Amino acid sequence: MTDFSVQGATVVVVGAARSGIAAARLLAARGGQVVLTEQQREVDTSVSSLREDGIELELGGHDPHTLTSAELVVLSPGVSPTLPVFDAVRRRGVPVISEIELASRWLRGRLVAVTGTKGKSTTVVLLGRMLEASGCAVLVGGNVGTALSSQVERSTPDVIHVVEVSSFQLELTTTFKPSIAVLLNLHSDHLDRHGGYESYAAAKARIFANQTEGDTLVINGDDPEVVRLTGSSRALRCSYALNERVDDGVTVVDEVITYRRPGGDLPLVPVSAVHLLGRHFLSDVLAATTVAHRIGVSGMDMTRAVGQFTGLEHALEPVGEIRGVRFINDSKATNIVAARRAIESCGIPLVVIMGGRFKGGDLASLAPLLEERVDAVVAIGEARDRIYDTLASSVRVIRVESLGAAVSASFGLATPGGTVLLAPACASLDMFRNYAERGQVFTQAVSRLREGAEEKREQ
Question: Domain 10-94, CATH 3.40.50.720 — does that match?
């Protein structure tokens, strides 16, 4: 908690998605004169009802005069700070911050923040359940679940806030300072937003930029980029690793997740308790275990939480089987690294649905893996021609117009005992509101296909 105040100040919130709505409500509750500006003209009731809280709505575009008249501007994660409309704001010296920066200034509880290219949501949710199993008061949110701004009024000194933070949220932080920061991994992603890998990595590095010697930084010792990037940190470093040698940190010893230390090993969680598809998920379990151990959770409570955790929606989620063909929804695989991990985690033969809005990266790097493990790729969305041009020389690529058509085509290409995997390697925003809607549409298409197959069998 700080002495930061917006009492009587004119504050403009840009973007009327979940985080923007939460920020606007928080600012109004703290005495700000709030304007919420949104590019879209048509909004749902969750936005229009903000007027009841005294929040002014400006719909159909961002008025430069509104922005330059503000004393503070708060951006939703989906709004790029490089838009030309913000140039005049900066010239006037108006602070432009992210929603998560705003909320963190008013938190009273302990802040644990997790970032990385892949695995954030799994780690955050599992860690939250470990803490709950131990009896801690915990609130999970940020980029997953509820926006951090919506947690401020429930923040007490006893609460632990476990927060997923993206590069979009981190890039405009100035005082954001978790007591425990976690950097899971680092690969090229969101290059369409950040313009290059170094800018992306610099945004991720904001998670530990303000930490001091009294804070903790948990790092993945298997990831050379994480090790390199965090070398300048002033915080106490705690490592975990599946593959690299760990002398003081968390690793797997004789099929048990173990805290290895100079004074002797401390067994924490048997690997047999983990019920997640894909070895990369085991790395996320190690990350959550490292933080939980640091906070003081017992191995028994960790094991109970891990044993009851079967994964998240849209993350290698089995959604059905039709005539011996499995369907797996990994709509959260929005970049090339995530798609690679998904493909490696599923058995063969395999048909993969890919496509959407391309975010950058080396799509051709998937070619050897696809050639080895995949019978066909079904391409959708804005990137379908790019996928065809890049990969068709290595694997059969079929282009279709919709996700529903992709499900039908994939089933026709699959063989009994095989798998149809949705691993887009792209963002969803060309066709859907978000990755969750894409995953839901995939699941619904599988259900309709199953119903049709059952009707034919009955006839």
Answer: yes
